[in-house]
Write a structure and sequence with these properties.
The complex is a heterodimer of chains A (215) and B (582). Chain A is mainly α. Helix content of chain A is 85%, strand content 0%. In chain B, helix 22 crosses helix 23. Classes of the chains: A mainly alpha (215), B mainly alpha (582).
Chain lengths: 215, 582
């Protein structure tokens, strides 16, 4: 009746799920770096790893859903928790899709943009990296969630700024690029930037959830 | 005895009303939050209400009883009925009513009607308790909430594990609060019927219950009936009307209720405090709703927010006034009618004397004891056997369900495998067909090669005979004529008409789809243009095409240009690409 066995199992799976998202963001960063620096083999490795991590995260999410619903765990909070897991899963899914876009469309990126794009990726991934501890804290110490989420908002804002500056540079300062190449670059900047936006959405949800949990 | 049971019906009805309303404070919030399901919560609450009433209900019952000396069952029936009607009306108009206040009002109405001297000391105890109970509720709500918050902050328990702990805590808190409710409020239900208690005691082996406890059992059964006759789907709706809490706050509120109800109903505690010279809590029925609201206010104080709406306070105030006043007035009116219409003797002095005589009689008599050890054992054994049978069949049912599920899964798997096999079979058939086609083409190729060789041999023999004949011819003119003829034959042969025809036929066979598409998309193309398109699809150069078509490279270029125009291909697009992608 009190479900301690299932509670323990679901705690473990949630922890594993958060670990997968964390790893996924790092692999994405590595993947983009490898693409920009032309390390094709490593890039393919990253793509494969990220794809595996994403499938595993999907499985874990379904397992958690299953346990929470079949064992009637936390009926008043499970809706919120599953929504949060869905948002986090979206991040790794998006990271995988975006890395695949690099592989399929093979965008031409002038080497002068490499540093900026690497920094953009790092900032975007930092937003995700700051979200994971906040999500972990929601379960054990909801009082500290808000202060951890400040970092997510900060990195998201910085990512936006840098993405705008890259796009401006592409369209105004690199005349040798074709218009199609400029468009292509704009899309890929967006692909990287959007990860921080999704992290911000998850942060919004998390901050409301933490407020609800504050007793 | 039967007459007593008939008269007690109004008290049981009051108990039923208490069961439908006050018990919601005990488990409504937990059910609403889905911390416990309705069945479990109601079962635990019922069990502990029964226990509380039987084992600790004496204190408050005595206090209610001492409010008026009622020895006539008809009067007790009338008072309980009037109180029940007032409670019912107030519940219908959604006022938080306290049964305790109503019953005191009813007793006061009776006291005024018989011109009895009011026991101000006792009445002040009641009023003090009604004020003290919610105040202690506030204080305990604050204290427990601070403790709970501190523990949760320090322990950093995972939310999911915390949920399980809270379930246990709620379970225990419901049990304790239900025990307190049974012990404290049973006095309201059967307090005025105390002297109707059967002159009997029942021995259960482990414990014996006396006549008054049998009365408590009846009263608590009526409360439990109230719980089960209530539409459980309305629990959440009703719970939200009064309180909307978090699981943590629910435990706090229930714990505060349990403690306050215990304070005001425990004879043991009262005696213990009195024995050390401390003022004891009066054993008075108090309102569980008011305690619950008090503890929620206490939580609000700690959180720095207002948890209760101002409207609820107004309603409580109205309940405070209307319950005793309404019950008093209705009881007075009912007794007046009984006295004037039926000439019923309602005089306080007489009744007090009668009551005392009954008491003395009760003390002098030794009640018969009903031995329930054997029937109890038989009953318990029957319950255990029935439970085992139920569990056995339930297990069987679950096993069958699991087997059915596995069978369904296997069936699904079988269907998927079947579909996969069919797909594989289809693939094999297509592969076989394509291999057969290839074999056919190869066979034809070999036949053609064989035929070609024999044809070449016969042609070369013909040429050789012709040359020999020409050599043997003495006439120069005739020889030249014959050699020219031979040269013509060779030139004709050099255009390979038969081979070319077969070559084109093979190309068409291999690229069947392409030629079909070409025919349907561009029906105006000439045979030469179709051949040119076929050769372009093979990616042959202009020179190769010119040799095969027996025309000059320039003519091939012109033919290509015409074909492009006929196919409506834009100038900057390549004809080769277009044909390859067709």
């Amino acid at each position: 009746m009190f479900n301690f066995k299932h509670a323990k199992k679901s705690i473990e799976i949630i922890e594993q799920f958060l670990g997968l998202i964390d790893q996924g963001s790092l692999i994405f960063k590595d993947g983009v770096k490898n693409y920009l620096l032309g390390n094709k083999e490593n890039f393919q490795d990253n793509l494969k790893t990220l794809s595996n991590l994403s499938s595993e995260a999907d499985i874990k999410k379904r397992e958690i859903e299953n346990i929470l619903y079949t064992q009637s765990l936390m009926p008043q909070l499970r809706g919120d928790i599953l929504k949060l897991l869905e948002e986090l899963n979206n991040i790794i899914d998006l990271a995988k899709t975006n890395l695949f876009e690099f592989d399929v469309e093979v965008p031409f990126i002038p080497s002068e943009l490499n540093q900026d794009l690497i920094k953009l990726t790092e900032l975007s991934v930092l937003a995700i990296d700051s979200l994971i501890p906040a999500a972990r804290d929601y379960f054990v110490n909801p009082g500290s969630v808000k202060e951890k989420l400040h970092r997510v908002y900060l990195y998201e804002k910085e990512t936006d700024k840098l993405a705008s500056s890259i796009k401006r540079r592409v369209f105004q300062n690199i005349p040798q690029l074709k218009l199609s190449e400029k468009f292509h670059l704009r899309y890929f900047t967006l692909h990287i930037e959007i990860l921080s936006d999704v992290a911000k959405n998850a942060a919004d949800l998390l901050s409301i959830m933490a407020l609800k949990r504050a007793i | 005895m039967t007459l007593a049971l008939i008269f007690i019906v109004s008290g049981l009805y009051l108990g039923w009303l208490l069961g439908t309303n006050d018990t919601l404070n005990v488990f409504g919030s937990a059910v609403n939050l889905k911390v416990l399901n309705y069945k479990t919560a109601a079962f635990v609450a019922s069990l502990f209400i029964l226990s509380g009433a039987i084992f600790q209900g004496e204190g408050t019952t005595k206090t209610i009883h001492s409010l008026g000396y009622i020895s006539k069952p008809a009067i007790a029936f009338t008072i309980a009925l009037c109180v029940a009607l007032v409670v019912l009306i107030l519940v219908k108009i959604k006022l938080p009513v306290s049964t305790s206040q109503a019953i005191v009002g009813g007793m006061m109405g009776w006291g005024i009607f018989v011109h009895a001297t009011t026991d101000w000391n006792l009445l002040s105890k009641f009023i003090l308790s009604w004020i003290l109970a919610p105040v202690i509720g506030i204080l305990l709500g604050m204290l427990f909430f601070i403790l709970m918050r501190g523990i949760l902050k320090r322990s950093r328990i995972h939310l999911i594990k915390l949920n399980s702990y809270l379930r246990i805590a709620t379970f225990i808190a419901i049990a304790l609060a239900a025990f307190g409710l049974g012990a404290n409020n049973i006095g309201n239900v059967v307090g005025i019927f105390s002297n109707l208690a059967p002159d009997l005691s029942i021995d259960f082996g482990f414990f014996t219950i006396g006549g008054i406890q049998i009365l408590f059992l009846l009263g608590s059964i009526s409360i439990v009936t109230g719980i089960y006759s209530y539409n459980w789907r309305l629990v959440s709706e009703r719970s939200n009307e009064i309180l909307s809490l978090t699981p943590e706050a629910t435990v706090v509120v229930l714990a505060a209720q349990a403690v306050v109800l215990f304070l005001f109903s425990s004879s043991w505690l009262a005696n213990s405090l009195a024995s050390v010279g401390l003022p004891a809590f009066p054993l008075v029925p108090v309102s569980s709703t008011q305690i619950a609201i008090g503890s929620v206010i206490g939580i609000g104080f700690v959180k720095g927010s207002q948890e209760i709406e101002a409207k609820t306070f107004t309603n409580i105030g109205l309940g405070w006034i209307s319950a005793p006043l309404g019950a008093g007035l209705l009881t007075y009116s009912a007794l007046f009618i009984i006295h004037t219409v039926f000439q019923f003797p309602v005089s306080h002095e007489n009744l007090q004397l009668e009551f005392k005589q009954t008491e003395i009689q009760n003390l002098a008599s030794h009640p018969p004891t009903l031995n329930m050890v054997l029937p109890g054992i038989i009953f318990l054994s029957a319950v255990i056997i029935l439970a085992l049978i139920y569990l056995f069949f339930r297990q069987q049912k679950l096993r069958l369900k699991a087997e059915k599920d596995i069978l369904a899964q296997q069936n699904q798997l079988f269907l998927s495998e079947k579909a996969m096999n069919e797909l594989e079979m289809k693939t094999f058939a297509i592969e076989n067909e394509s291999l057969n086609l290839k074999l056919l083409v190869k066979r034809k190729e070999f036949m053609d090669i064989a035929l070609n060789i024999s044809e070449q041999i016969s042609f070369l023999e013909k040429i050789s005979t012709g040359i020999n004949d020409a050599i043997k011819t003495p006439d120069n003119e005739e020889r030249e004529h014959r050699l020219n003829k031979l040269s013509m034959i060779i030139k004709q042969k050099m255009s390979f008409p038969q081979e070319k025809k077969e070559f084109y036929m093979q190309i068409e066979e291999i690229h069947k789809d392409f030629h079909l598409k070409l025919k349907t998309s561009f029906p105006d193309l000439t045979n030469l243009e179709k051949r040119l398109a076929g050769l372009l699809r093979l990616n042959l150069s202009t020179k190769e095409i010119s040799t095969l078509l027996n025309i000059s490279p320039k003519s091939v270029e012109v033919a290509r240009y015409r074909l492009k125009k006929k196919m409506n291909i834009e100038k900057d697009k390549s004809l080769n690409n277009f044909i390859t992608n067709l």
